[in-house]
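User: Just a sanity check before I run the rest of the batch. Below are the structure tokens for the first item. I only need the designed sequence back.
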């Protein structure tokens, strides 16, 4: 090893505390980058692989009823590579151990196992046996949530008839990676499940022999999706087609795609902050090191070392800790990425969520860390190589003196000498003090923004489950029913209040833009189900015209006052021109509303409804649930309270993980900044503080002068950090919002208190460590006059 190499390692060991702090910050940034990049790549790759292996369709079409011969005609359409007609039906289930009625979606599968579009992955059990009409394969999330085993039976009302179904297998499907009830948004695996049944058995139960009511299409490589959708709509119009849509509008795929996009956003934010802080710490450490080694630099130049050799030597002070941090961060990131991937496997129903990482991501993380090191060290190294030997042999000129603002104004005289020294030191190094405070503020910002997601989701849940939806049960009918069904439901013992509404699938057209959208017809906006905007404020439904959510109106390029063409996709398939009266900012989904009477005029078939919202007397709920399980004509029942509890459980698990990680990372960041700042102040002011000790000041007073500066900077950082956290949360809200949901900008006071105590605790720990180093100072060695 060369002389410069030995000098490098010796002095890095001497500065090991500060260097480890730098390495820890870099490791945090790299670990987040590698972990989230790995998760992003794992989700995206697994999704594509899953779709390819199980032949997930590209286009979907629901319809009333069509003969199987129409599948062959769909294959003639240019761009269609494969097509599959199947039977789909939603039914009410009676599950052992569950008092409430559950909802099942029945999907037909070939009587004999063969590859088909939207295939299933058999996880446990077996496929159907020929001639067994009561056998079904159930989705794994439903089985696990209800504690069911292969061989158990469940009851179902299929086409108005009670049936006992035997579960012979457990499976998953690419169609239901995110498994939610139709019309829902949050998963409730206990009360909703997907079931696959042999085609002959399901066709017999639903009187659908030789027919189908759902079409899946796979496109050829060079197909035009828009053209295929248009041709399918035209071909199946007479069969009650409700509008073909592509994979991008499939609810499960859209949810997964949004999740992958959000992970990609997180890849850029946190690593950028950590690497910037690491560069800052390296800069101040190296500048201090260079200032104390001016004479050594001059001697090295006098001995014949070139500027390049000296510059590379001091650059090594930056590259060494960053290399350690990059290595530790990469290993931690791979471990963390694997753990997060396992967490995602609990939320999404992949047959197997593969953990994958790319060597290019690891290489990029290393390059980013070295770029941060070089960026942080550039100024210090440049000052080294530009230092003439003769000038370096002299001690560094002191900074300009003179009275500061506090001294000239006389304000400083009101404070004690220790406090005066603290304020003077901050005032004489304004840039360094401001940057140090900014770095601490970033730690606070990470804590605030990290908890923002939980605040936003909690607010969304409160708005949806407590204020907007106040029903206990929603009953959905498999066919439009007359309003007389309201009297039938109201007669059930335990029904306190009931409210009917209608849903009509339609195509909304504004200029050259169009969207396939369900229009909800409601009689009032302040009943059991209320209209609320993003600020949780009530909204009154216009008596005439159309009301759209702001996101839907924006996607259509429509503004209040515009006239939209509305093509209803079922029943009489009427066309109407409806004025957009207003827009409403809702948090979840895309919605279109009309007054029920107005919807009846536009769509026809007056006096019919699609569903009913019920408020129940808890004392009679068990009896009512038993009646609902056997009620014919019901496609599904949703339980608001159960859905809320299920979602809260999912959010609680994810929040604990993310909060713990962000707290640790933000704590490391704050510790590194405060500790390095105090250590550098100690090295810069060691002579001054030792002189004060000789003059009679106690260790406590000296510690106050040294650490007081960091206390002031930390206090100054708190309000700024809160502001930065709110700004970062706002940017996250903009970037994470999608058509499926809009993130509200809300903050809970408890999270600011939590962030405050974390920063204070970290500052105290770093202060204790630095004070121990100060107490061990050799006064005689420090006070020796430099030659």
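Assistant: Here's the designed sequence for the first item:
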């Amino acid at each position: 090893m060369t002389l410069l190499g030995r000098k490098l390692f010796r002095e890095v060991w001497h500065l090991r505390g500060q260097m480890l702090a730098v390495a820890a910050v870099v490791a945090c940034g790299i670990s987040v980058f590698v972990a989230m990049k790995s998760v992003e790549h794992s989700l995206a790759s697994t999704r594509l692989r899953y779709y390819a292996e199980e032949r997930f369709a590209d286009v979907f079409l629901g319809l009333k009823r069509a003969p199987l011969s129409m599948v062959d005609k769909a294959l003639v359409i240019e761009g269609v590579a494969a097509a599959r007609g199947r039977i789909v039906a939603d039914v009410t289930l009676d599950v052992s151990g569950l008092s409430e009625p559950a909802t099942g979606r029945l999907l037909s599968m070939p009587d004999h196992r063969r590859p088909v579009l939207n295939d299933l992955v058999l996880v446990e059990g077996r496929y159907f046996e020929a001639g067994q009409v009561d056998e079904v394969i159930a989705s794994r999330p439903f089985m696990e949530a209800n504690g069911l085993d292969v061989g158990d039976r469940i009851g179902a009302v299929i086409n108005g008839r009670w049936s006992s179904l035997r579960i012979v297998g457990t499976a998953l499907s690419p169609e239901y990676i995110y498994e939610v009830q139709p019309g829902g948004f949050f998963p409730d695996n206990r009360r909703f499940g997907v079931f696959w049944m042999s085609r002959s058995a399901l066709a017999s139960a639903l009187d659908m022999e030789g027919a189908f009511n759902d079409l899946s299409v796979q496109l050829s490589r060079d197909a035009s999706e828009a053209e295929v959708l248009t041709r399918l709509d035209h071909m199946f119009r007479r069969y009650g087609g409700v509008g073909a849509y592509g994979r991008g509008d499939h609810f499960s795929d859209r949810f997964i795609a949004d999740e992958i996009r959000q992970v990609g956003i997180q890849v850029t934010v946190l690593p950028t902050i950590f690497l910037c802080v690491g560069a800052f710490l390296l800069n101040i450490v190296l500048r201090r090191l260079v200032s104390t080694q001016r004479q050594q630099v001059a001697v090295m130049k006098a001995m014949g070392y070139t500027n390049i050799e000296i510059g590379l030597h001091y650059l090594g002070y930056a590259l060494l800790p960053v290399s350690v941090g990059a290595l530790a961060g990469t290993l931690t990131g791979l471990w963390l990425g694997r753990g997060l991937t396992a967490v995602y496997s609990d939320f999404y129903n992949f047959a197997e969520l593969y953990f994958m990482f790319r060597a290019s991501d690891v290489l990029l993380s290393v390059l980013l860390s070295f770029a941060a090191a070089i960026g942080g060290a550039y100024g210090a190294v440049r000052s080294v190589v530009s230092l003439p030997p003769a000038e370096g042999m002299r001690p560094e000129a002191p900074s300009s003196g003179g009275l500061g603002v506090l001294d000239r104004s006389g304000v400083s005289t009101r404070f004690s000498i220790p406090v005066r020294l603290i304020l003077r030191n901050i005032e004489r190094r304004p840039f360094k003090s401001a940057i140090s405070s900014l770095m601490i503020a970033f730690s606070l910002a990470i804590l605030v923004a990290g908890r923002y997601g939980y605040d936003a989701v909690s607010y969304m849940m409160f708005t949806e489950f407590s204020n907007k939806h106040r029903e206990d049960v929603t009953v959905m009918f498999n066919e439009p029913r007359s309003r007389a069904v309201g009297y039938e439901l109201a007669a059930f013992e335990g029904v306190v209040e009931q409210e009917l509404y209608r849903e009509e699938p339609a195509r909304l057209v504004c200029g050259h833009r169009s969207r396939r959208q369900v229009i909800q017809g409601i009689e009032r906006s302040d009943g059991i189900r209320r209209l609320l905007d993003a600020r949780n404020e009530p909204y009154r439904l216009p008596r005439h015209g159309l009301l759209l959510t702001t996101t839907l109106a924006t996607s259509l390029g429509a503004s209040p006052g515009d006239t939209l063409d509305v093509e209803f996709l079922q029943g009489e398939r009427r066309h109407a021109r409806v004025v957009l009266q207003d827009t409403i900012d809702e948090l979840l989904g895309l919605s279109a509303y009309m007054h029920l009477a107005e919807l009846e005029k536009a769509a026809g078939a007056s006096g019919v409804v699609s569903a009913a919202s019920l408020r129940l007397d808890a004392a009679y709920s068990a009896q009512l649930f038993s009646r609902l399980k056997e009620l014919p004509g019901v496609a599904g029942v949703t339980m608001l309270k159960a859905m809320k509890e299920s979602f809260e459980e999912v959010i609680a698990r994810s929040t604990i993980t993310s909060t713990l990680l962000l707290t640790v990372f933000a704590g490391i960041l704050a510790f590194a900044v405060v500790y390095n700042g105090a250590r550098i102040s100690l090295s810069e002011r060691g002579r001054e503080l030792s002189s004060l000790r000789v003059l009679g000041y106690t260790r406590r007073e000296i510690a106050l002068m040294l650490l007081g500066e960091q206390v002031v900077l930390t206090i100054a950082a708190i309000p700024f950090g809160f502001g930065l956290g709110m700004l970062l949360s706002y940017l996250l809200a903009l970037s994470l919002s999608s058509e499926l949901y809009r993130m509200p900008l809300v903050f809970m006071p408890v999270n600011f208190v939590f962030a405050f105590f974390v920063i204070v605790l970290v500052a105290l720990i770093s202060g204790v460590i630095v004070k121990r180093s100060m107490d061990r100072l050799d006064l005689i060695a420090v006070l020796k006059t430099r030659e």
